[in-house]
Amino acid sequence: YTNLGNAYISGARPDASLEWYDRAIRVFDQVLERESNDVRARLGLKISYSGRALAHFQLKHYADANADWEKAIKFSPKPEQPRYRALRATSLRLAGRIDDAVQEVFELTNIPGWNAERLSGFARIYSIASGQSLKNADEYAKRAIELLKKSIQLNYNDTALLKMDKDFEPLLKYGDFKKLIADLDKKSAPEK
User: Fold this and answer.
1) What angle do CA 167, 172, 176 make, to 5 degrees?
2) Whole-angstrom distance, CA of residue 68 vs CA of residue 85
3) Which of 8, 11, 26, 80 is packed most tightly, with the most Cβ within 10 A?
4) Quick check: 32 and 38 in contact, CB under 8 A?
5) DSSP, residue by residue, 45-107
6) What is the spatial distance between Cα 141 and Cα 156, in angstroms, rounded to a whole number?
7) Count of alpha carbons within 13 Å of 86, Cβ hemisphere only?
8) Which region, left, alpha or beta, applies to residue 96 given φ > 0 means left and ψ of -120 to 50 means alpha?
9) List of long-range contacts for 72-75, beta carbons under 8 Å, 24+ apart
10) Is 63 within 8 Å of 98 (Cβ atoms)?
């Protein structure tokens, strides 16, 4: 069942995948009821919940995606959990739960090894939070800019996105952000 769900996701049919993930989850749950330490059932649940979370995400059912990311995390080995937590942070942001997303990202940024794309995604969450918070706006903006600087060190260079994406608008009033954009513009400008 999980493989059929995955096939529908791969075929850009997240709506059709949900039924198959539901079936897989029911089967794996029944196995775990009989044998609570069954490694294959736990792996199957991790894959099925993460697949269903992705389907919900693609369908913009962010609350449902969050619930499934929770389950995928529960059934994942510790080293895999940060990846699913990062995906959950994005779902939380899109569900309008920015405070929860900030808390998640705060914890995740203490884990080394994130790539440039993921760091810029974390920066996005802090940027949005800076625009919504009266109390912590400067702190969140500072953290967003720090994360963007780290992502640039890892070769992130989407200057156009940073300039035009409304999620980064709250940072436009900060000199450090303006300097970061100017430096990126210089770096990406063709040599004369």
Assistant:
1) 115
2) 11
3) 8
4) yes
5) HHHHHHHHHHHHHHTT-HHHHHHHHHHHHHTS-GGGHHHHHHHHHHHHHHTT-HHHHHHHHHH
6) 18
7) 21
8) left
9) 72/46, 75/42, 75/43, 75/45, 75/46, 75/49
10) no
Tokens of 58: 């693609």
CB < 8 Å & 24+ apart, contacts of 110-117? 111/82, 114/86, 115/154, 116/151, 116/152, 116/154, 116/155, 116/156, 117/151, 117/156
From first to last of its 192 residues, the chain has per-residue pLDDT tens of 777 787 888 878 899 999 999 999 999 999 999 998 899 999 999 999 999 999 999 999 999 999 999 999 999 999 999 999 999 999 999 999 999 999 999 999 999 999 999 999 999 999 999 999 889 999 999 999 999 999 999 988 888 888 889 999 999 999 999 999 998 888 776 665
